[in-house]
Amino acid sequence: MSSDERIARFLDAVCQHLYWPPYRARVRRELTDHILSHAEYLHESRSYEWDEAVDRALQSLGEPNELGRALRHARFPLLYVLCVLFTGVIWAAIAACIAYLLLLLMQ
Questions:
Q1: What is the pLDDT of residue 101?
Q2: Between the CA of residue 41 and those of 45, 50, 92, what are the distances in Å?
Q3: Are 61 and 31 in contact (CB under 8 A)?
Q4: What was the pLDDT predicted at 8?
C-alpha cells in the first residue's frame, strides 16, 4: 500500500467520528498538513525512507479511532450542546410569552 493510501485510510478512520462537514474538512486538511510536514522532517533530517517516515508520522498521532473520538468531544462537548439547547428553549419560551401578551393586548 502506498503512503498516500495509508494517509487516506488514517484520515478516513479519524474523520468517521466527526459529524459536522466543515469541521471534518478542516480537521482532515490540518492533519494532512501535519502528517506530511512531520514525514518530510523525518525524511530529510533523520534520513528515514519516505514510507517509513510516513509510518512514523502516523504512529506519532496514535490510534485513529481514539483521535477521532477525542476531536469530536473536544469540538462538541456534551455540556456545550446541552447549554445551547437549554438556551434555545429559554428563547422560545420568551418568544411565546411575548406572542401571548401581544394577543392579549389586541383583544
A1: 95
A2: 6, 10, 53
A3: yes
A4: 97
Give the number of C-alpha atoms closer than 13 A to the C-alpha of residue 85, restricted to the C-beta side.
7
Do residues 50 and 71 make contact, with C-beta atoms less than 8 angstroms apart? Answer: no
Cell of 8: 487516506
For residues 77 and 66, what is the distance between their CA atoms, to the nearest angstrom?
15
* Residue in 91, 99, 3 with CA at minimum distance from that of residue 43: 3
**The three grid cell numbers given for residue 70, joined into one nine-digit string:** 477525542
Cβ–Cβ under 8 Å, residues 75 and 27: no
Look up the pTM and report it.
Answer: 0.72
Distance of CA 53 to the CA centre of its chain: 25
Backbone angles phi, psi at 12, to 5 degrees: -60, -40
Q: Which residues of the chain have pLDDT under 70?
A: 77
Does residue 35 contact residue 6 with C-beta atoms inside 8 Å?
no
What phi and psi, each to the nearest 5 degrees, are found at residue 103? -65, -40
Closest CA to 13 of 65, 57, 82: 65
pLDDT at 60: 96
